[in-house]
Amino acid sequence: MRMLIALLCFGLSSLVNAALPVWFGSEQASRTLYIHSTLDMTSFRPLLERFVAIHPDVRIGYIDVNTLELYYLTVSETAQPTASLILSSAMDLQLKLVNDGFTQAYQSSETDRLPRQAKWRDEVFAFSYEPVVMMVNKNAFAAGAIPEDRQSLLSYIRQQDDKVAGRMGTYDIRTSGVGYLMASQDARQADATWGRMLEAFGSHGVKTYCCSSDIIDDVATGELVVGYNLLGSYAAQRANADDNLEMIIPKDYTLMLMRTAVIPKRADNPQDAGRFLDFLLSDEGQALMTSEELLYPIRPDQEATHFAMPLGPTRTIRTVDLDQQLLVGRDLVKQRRFIRSWELALELSSGD
Amino acid sequence: MWRKLPPQTSVLERSLDYRHSPSLRGRFIAVGAFTIILIAALAIKLVFDYSERLADISYDRLLRSALLQMDENVGQENGEITIDIPWSAFATLAQASDDRVFYKVESSSQGFITGYYDLDSTPALPVEQGGIQFFDRQYSGETLRFAWLERYLTEPDASGTVRIALAHTRLSREDMAASVTQRAVELITLVALVSIVLLVIGSQLILRPLHRIEQELEQRTPGDLTPLTLKTPRETYHLKVVINDFMQRLQTNLEELENYTGNAAHQLRTPIASLKALAENARDIGKPEEQHQALEKIVQQCEALSDTVSFLLNQAMISHRLQSKSLGLIDIVQPIQESCRAQALTAFRKGVMLSFESDLDEAVIVGDTMAIEQMMQNLIENAVRYSLLEDSNERREVIIRITPLPHIYRVQVIDQGVGITDADKQRVFERFYRGRYDIPGSGVGLSLVKDIANHHNAEVQLSDTAPHGTTVTVDFPAFQFKGDHQ
């Protein structure tokens, strides 16, 4: 397995190095800040543009990387990291980076304002929430038959056996860090339900994807009826724009992740990385996430009338704690066993 | 005036003196504060040790609990030893909020199972199977606290041991220790400061009686020597008594001096008046022989006056000497013999024999040689004077005798003069009292003798010599070495 990871790691890093950064800000800017991020450009562009408008002396090179790739890339670049700021939704991998000593501490008035549960060791900082949701193509459902939670989704799958076969999609937890996180937290929250979901997925030929956006694309075209465990901010944006799509916030429980930022230990430009982080956490940055319908801001006072966060008090929200517990999910043996059982259930071979 | 003003010291000198004098209160505060600070420092040291132990005890419990939860989930799967780390184990560790966590699970048969491969999991203490040990070790740039366990596998078909090392950084422990310490240090510092402030205030209160005595004395009129009646605490009682005694002595001395001066002036006035009368008389007399006689009288009167003045000076000198000089060990045989020798010729010219009778080589007393000589001179002069008054053809003799008695040296001056009446015996020791005015003398001779005798703790007695005359007996206490019981 370790051999595999090493190979994967090597392959991925060469792949990422080939990816060209997207540039923001003036070419004449005196300083450059490289950001490695898992955020889709559509959700992040306004924030980047605003930042370089405020700081014209900084030029940002933005490189979009998959969550798991991002982790191995950061670990492999320990000696000389490309990016000075790492943004990821896979909070377990981010926390592991911190725990294993790959990051440096940062402190400012903005990070001091963050609630305790939104940061750890002053090295990893959450800047937005991310509810874990489902997405369906309305056309596939009769009016009023859209499932509200996992149980109703399961009974729908049972009833519409042939209709859903091969038309469900979820993350490939082997290649997506955040996919693994969501699956492992699902298993932790409700082991029995998770088992039945896996069984249902396996028996109906679930499709696995690397990214939220790909799943949503396929749901939008009608190729998929339902996408399970998607990141809420992307789903909400697309659901707003497309009448065929409906985002479902599961009523039984809703996992709540956080998008986090870390600064690698030997980062070239930790000053500007800190400045950018401060901007994300600032009133302006947080307000921009809401007004531009980009992300769910981390500070509750920014949440007042949010674009698509219908999480009322009746919802059971399970916020994944940003602390040492995340390390358990990334335990070598546990991870191997979990992926193995996932592969078995979904009738996928490990060689896939 | 008799009152002498003390030499005026300048204000500058006084303030310098004041500044350089050691302060009782300063010393009291310094010693007190030093003690308090010492105790506080000790307490803080104890708190430091204690708080670290306390933090370790508390957080070792967390670590132990997490380790046991991990240990419970060691199992066998497809013939392999494996572990399914429970979420709750790390939820326990998350209570040490900011501490990084590292672990390593190994078995004797499989080697590394999971965790951090490069974590040094060798035990730091002697291994006791199934027992948990705690120790500190460096890893990943930080000091970690390890909980370490090794036990025999109990699963069927499994043999050998499984070893779990779970560690976390010491941040929370240090935070806890620091907060305990900080609070304790704050408290101790506060208590110490309050104690020192109380000490300062207390010292002010304690020394207040001294200031009151000082004020009382300062506010007095210059001649006021009445005792202090101030109510003061027990600790200053002796000071007060000593001051009062001192003032009493001063008062007595002043009174004596006043009397003496008054009497002396009075005594000098009479002979001066008579001298004046004699001189006027001599001036008015026409006949040269009578005039010569009158002048002769004036000369006699002048001699008497001169005697009186020298007596007065002697007495002043002696009493000053007695007051200012401390007494020493002296031999009285020698000075008494000297006195006799010095006066023998004068007495012989007047027709009186002086004889000295003593078998002693030495008679040691506590006293002053000069005072003894003065006393002897007065006694011998008196004796000679009184001897001359006796009209007889007998041999006039004055005997000076020193006799050793138990604890006493008796000095006697014996004359065969006219003697002193019993009434006069009571009064001759009074100053300026003269038994008889027909003989020259100042009247201070015997009173000085009495003074000197008193100063030597000696007793003076007058008695009659048979058949006539006077015996003056002075009993000096002999000096005795301590422990000399004779």
Automatic annotation (TrEMBL), chain A:
Domain of life: Bacteria
Residue runs in coiled coils: none
The protein, known as: Bacterial extracellular solute-binding protein
GO cellular component: outer membrane-bounded periplasmic space
Alphabetical list of SUPFAM superfamilies matching this protein: Periplasmic binding protein-like II (SSF53850)
Signal sequence, start to end: 1-18
Gene3D superfamilies registered for this protein in UniProt: Periplasmic binding protein-like II (3.40.190.10)
Keyword terms: Signal
Organism of provenance: Marinomonas aquimarina
From TrEMBL, chain B:
Example of a GO cellular component annotation carried by this entry: plasma membrane
InterPro entries: 2CSK_N, HAMP_dom, HATPase_C_sf, HATPase_dom, His_kinase_dom, HisK_dim/P_dom, HisK_dim/P_sf, Sig_transdc_His_kin-like_C
Record EC number: 2.7.13.3
Localization: Membrane
Pfam families, per the entry: 2CSK_N, HATPase_c, HisKA
Keywords: Kinase, Membrane, Phosphoprotein, Transferase, Transmembrane, Transmembrane helix, Two-component regulatory system
Transmembrane intervals: 28-48, 187-207
Protein name as annotated: histidine kinase
